Amino acid sequence: MCPVAIDIPRALAHLREKVPDQGVRGHYLEKAAMKATSWVMDHPAVVAAGEWAAARTRALHPKRPLGAGAWTESRDLPELPEES
After folding, report:
1. Which strand (E) or helix (H) includes residue 12?
2. How many CB atoms lie within 10 A of CB 30?
3. Cα separations (Å) of 42 from 26, 48, 51, 84?
4. Angle at CA 13, nearest 5°, toward 12 and 14?
């Protein structure tokens, strides 16, 4: 919800419609990422393996997202609970 009443979903939809017209490579990368994500989500064993690996490598995860820059200088990611 935008505090100044900008229709964010409509604005995003408008901007996304412009991407294919510009011939931007990112559009194809996004499609490939969505296709890969769809495949992973259709295979519960793959999701479970990813969750297992993420839980075992928790100590190696960065405290701040890589590439987030100045936004994260004054913010920390919340600690992940041991159990959901």
Report:
1. helix 8-21
2. 13
3. 24, 12, 15, 21
4. 90
Q: What percentage of the chain exceeds 90 in pLDDT?
A: 29
How many other C-beta atoms are found inside a 10 Å radius of the C-beta of residue 21?
8
Element (H, E) at 39: helix 25-41
What are the structure tokens assigned to 33, written together? 């990422």
What are the CA-CA distances from residue 73 to residues 62, 78, 79 (Å)? Answer: 13, 14, 16
pLDDT tens string 38-71 = 999 999 999 999 999 999 998 888 776 677 777 6
Contact residues for 58 (Cβ-Cβ < 8 A; gap 6+)? 80
Helices then strands, counting H and E runs in the chain, come out as 3, 0
